[in-house]
């Protein structure tokens, strides 16, 4: 469960000018929700995702993740939270080049405390996204859609409670997008919490809840019957 | 398992850009090769010095005519040492077991039939064999009678025999030294090189009287060799001889001596001093190339960190702690330098094996296991030192900024 309370984030630009990217965001996301966040570029959605993903800290406000006060954690503990509780999926996949799908998926396991059965667990994650037969392919040998599915498998391998996807279909054609989105649908049905940033209304419609932001604030929060 | 994976990932990263990896290794390879050669040459040289000190004689004291020079054969134009000096030494210095007084000329032409060679002519006494502890291999030394009659008889060193006769037996044949006929009566046993690298087997021994009056026409002495009764007395004899000659030659305090006294200990000191200088020089070369190699590794690692910003951001997002990122780059840089170091040791050992062969024995080198330990330790140290700055830079990146690239 994610609880954000009056979150603000202020950056100081090179010229010394302060930019208020988030101006008091309060938000509560329950376990198992499928949330789409929509906002024009530069309106704070990436910063919000980074804060939810424990990559960044808010300037002020409180953030509780499964009851833990994140803003009080040190850097190593945040790394551990990212490793265990959060799975990231990026717009540009972020796979290591010339490294097999299996090894890419294993990457979070290297930084986890549980090092047992790395091959089996990574293999299972690849099975879950339907790429069990592409384990030993390197990214260059895979289509964009397949690469994104490898990235999704990587986000799943440590069995996190939350998946954070930042425009996961932004670099994909329509067919691949559909393929990737259906995987997210399935993961949601399996009970995972999914938070997805997107520009596309079509994709947002798959989510049970759409949050729209503008100028660092939430302007609408619509729940739909799933 | 985890460490093995980290190392495998590092190996993969290293393998991705082979040319760059090779360039990173190059300085380390050169440095460790030099280090390995130093160790091998040092060991070889010290074995050679030990052997040549043995050749010199642990109980020997040599007195050369003329001062100034550190070492080397006596100077021909120097007439500072006389037969009277040698008599005085024999009478007044205690602890002498045997003494040979010699007139020496170097680089003289010697002919046998159509063959000729250049060698050292040593006009000595019948004490030669005892004072030099140098037995003949065949034939015999000349006698007191030969000394008295200025007989034209000669004893040949092994090198002279090889160059003039090949495998034939020289005893009983006639050779010409400076156009004077000599009969060969004996052949010296093999001795090897002197501490200064001279071939001691390239010499011909003739009676002092014959050399002084029939060949070179000079009454002076070039060299006196003393064999001490007890090796522990060598330094005492050295100083006694020096004091006696200083007195006899009326050399005032503060003026240079016109003779040189050299014992086994001073010879070994000089030889070690020369070796030390060479080692210091090579050590410096090794240190500089390791330092330059380290700088190259550091700079290329910095470039590599710059190129892999996104990867660093990704790893941080997936749960890598700062120290995980730091150790990843440290492992990469030290793997590269250690591999370079091991290549350097192997190249260095090959050079150590080839060096004596290519220099025809002039340079000694003794391959050993120590370079592997030294090479590993030094290259790992360079890798860690060179990796600290790039690795820290990578670890301290803001993951949000790094992910954007």
> Hey, which two chains have the biggest interface?
A-B, 29 and 24 residues
In DSSP terms, counting alpha (H) and pi (I) runs of 4 or more, how many helices of chain A?
A: 7
What's the CATH class label of the domain at 32-43 and 78-223 in chain A?
A: Alpha Beta
Oligomeric state of this protein: heterodimer
Can you summarize the main beta sheet of chain B?
Answer: 6 strands, mixed, barrel
- How many DSSP E strands of chain A? 10
The major beta sheet of chain A can be summarized as: 6 strands, mixed
The SSE order of chain A reads EEEHEEHEHHHEHEHEE
- Give the radius of gyration of chain B: 32 Å
* CATH level 3 topology of the domain at 32-43 and 78-223 in chain A: Rossmann fold
Pairing-aware structural class of the strands and helices of chain A? alpha/beta
Which of globular, elongated, flat, extended, rod-shaped describes the shape of chain B? elongated
Which of globular, elongated, flat, extended, rod-shaped describes the shape of chain A?
globular
CATH-assigned homologous superfamily of the domain at 32-43 and 78-223 in chain A:
P-loop containing nucleotide triphosphate hydrolases
The strand count of chain B comes to 10
């Amino acid at each position: 469960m994610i609880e954000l309370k009056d979150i603000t984030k202020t950056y100081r630009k090179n010229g010394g000018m302060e930019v208020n990217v988030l101006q008091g965001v309060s938000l509560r996301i329950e376990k198992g929700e499928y949330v789409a966040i929509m906002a024009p570029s530069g309106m704070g959605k990436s910063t919000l995702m980074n804060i939810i993903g424990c990559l960044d800290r808010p300037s002020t406000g409180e953030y509780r993740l499964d009851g833990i006060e994140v803003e009080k954690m040190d850097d190593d503990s945040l790394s551990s939270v990212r490793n265990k509780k959060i799975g990231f999926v990026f717009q540009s996949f972020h796979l290591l080049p010339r490294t097999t799908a299996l090894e890419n998926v294993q990457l979070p396991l290297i930084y986890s405390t549980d090092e047992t059965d790395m091959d089996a667990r990574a293999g299972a994650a690849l099975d879950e996204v339907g790429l069990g037969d592409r384990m030993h392919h390197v990214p260059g040998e895979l289509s964009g859609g397949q690469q994104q599915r490898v990235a999704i498998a990587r986000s799943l391998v440590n069995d996190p409670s939350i998946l954070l996807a930042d425009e996961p279909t932004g670099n994909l054609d329509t067919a691949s997008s559909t393929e990737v989105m259906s995987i997210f649908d399935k993961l949601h049905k399996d009970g995972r919490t999914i938070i997805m940033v997107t520009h596309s209304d079509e994709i947002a419609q798959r989510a049970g809840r759409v949050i729209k932001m503008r100028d660092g604030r939430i302007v609408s929060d619509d729940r739909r019957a799933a | 398992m985890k460490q093995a994976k980290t190392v495998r990932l590092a190996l993969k990263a290293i393998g991705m850009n082979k040319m760059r990896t090779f360039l990173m290794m190059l300085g380390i390879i050169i440095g460790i090769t030099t280090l390995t050669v130093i160790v091998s040459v040092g060991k070889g040289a010290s074995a050679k010095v030990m052997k040549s000190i043995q050749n010199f004689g642990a109980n020997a004291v040599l007195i050369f005519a003329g001062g100034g020079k550190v070492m080397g054969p006596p100077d021909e134009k120097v007439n500072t040492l006389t037969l009277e000096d040698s008599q005085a030494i024999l009478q007044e210095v205690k602890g002498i077991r045997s003494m040979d007084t010699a007139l020496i000329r170097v680089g003289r032409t010697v002919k046998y039939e159509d063959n000729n060679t250049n060698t050292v002519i040593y006009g000595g006494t019948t004490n030669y064999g005892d004072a030099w502890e140098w037995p003949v291999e065949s034939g015999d030394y000349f006698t007191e009678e030969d000394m008295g009659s200025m007989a034209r008889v000669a004893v040949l060193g092994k090198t002279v025999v090889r160059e003039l006769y090949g495998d034939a037996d020289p005893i009983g044949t006639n050779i010409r030294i400076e156009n004077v006929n000599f009969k060969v009566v004996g052949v010296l046993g093999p001795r090897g090189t002197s501490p200064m690298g001279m071939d001691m087997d390239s010499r011909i021994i003739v009676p002092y009287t014959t050399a002084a009056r029939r060949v070179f026409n000079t009454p002076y002495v070039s060299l006196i060799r003393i064999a001490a009764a007890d090796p522990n007395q060598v330094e005492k004899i050295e100083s006694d001889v020096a004091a006696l000659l200083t007195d006899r030659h009326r050399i005032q305090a503060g003026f240079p001596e016109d003779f040189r006294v050299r014992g086994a200990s001073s010879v070994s000191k000089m030889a070690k001093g020369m070796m030390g200088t060479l080692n210091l020089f090579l050590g410096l070369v090794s240190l500089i190339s390791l330092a330059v190699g380290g700088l190259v590794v550091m700079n290329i690692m910095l470039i590599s960190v710059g190129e892999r910003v996104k990867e660093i951001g990704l790893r941080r997002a997936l749960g890598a702690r700062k120290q995980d990122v730091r150790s990843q780059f440290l492992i990469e840089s030290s793997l590269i330098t250690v591999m370079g170091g091991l290549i350097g040791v192997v190249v260095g050992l090959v050079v150590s094996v080839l060096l004596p062969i290519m220099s025809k024995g002039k340079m000694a080198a003794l391959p050993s296991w120590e370079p592997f330990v030294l090479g590993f330790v030094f290259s790992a140290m360079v890798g860690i030192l060179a990796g600290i700055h790039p690795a820290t830079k990578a670890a301290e990146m803001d993951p949000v900024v790094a992910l954007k690239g």
